[in-house]
Write a structure and sequence with these properties.
single chain, 140 residues, mainly beta, Immunoglobulin-like, five-stranded antiparallel β-sheet, three-stranded antiparallel β-sheet, 12 strands, elongated
């Protein structure tokens, strides 16, 4: 069962004669909240427009939020030694992309996205992917 969810149950008895009618539903059972068990999938760094880095991912469905105040922590940095991570918090879980303007032409980046909620960050490390900022329009 998923954390931070409401469940009801019905019972059907079965014997050699066949199944019974379903029982009335049970009282509502609540599961306690927990940290997310995964991070967004299909994380990409696209070079769709010049001088920008477009980071995209597949939004996580509500059943995977596991608690209130679900958010994404998007991080990126140039793929070079000693580069520092830049972080942006995305508060709307339906969001599927982040456009970073004013980037150098066709520069490689490392990108990762971690999910978190009011209970904390996901219990798995985010996957780091490589992406590129856009090329100068004269190359299109």
């Amino acid at each position: 069962m998923s954390p931070w969810a409401n469940y009801t149950f019905r019972v059907i008895a079965r014997n050699s004669i066949g199944p019974s009618l379903p029982s009335l539903h049970s009282d509502v059972c609540f599961t306690p909240p927990d940290v997310p068990f995964k991070n967004p999938e299909n994380v990409k760094g696209d070079k769709t427009t010049p001088y920008t880095l477009l980071i995209s991912w597949t939004p996580m469905p509500e059943i995977e939020h596991n608690a209130a105040k679900f958010q994404y922590e998007v991080q990126w940095k140039p793929d070079e030694e000693n580069a520092q991570w830049t972080t942006e918090i995305i508060k709307d879980w339906r969001t599927s992309s982040l456009l970073i303007p004013n980037q150098p032409i066709y520069r490689p980046y490392l990108i990762k996205i971690r999910s978190f909620n009011e209970k904390g960050q996901s219990n798995v490390a985010p996957t780091v992917v490589r992406g590129f900022s856009g090329q100068d329009s004269k190359f299109f």
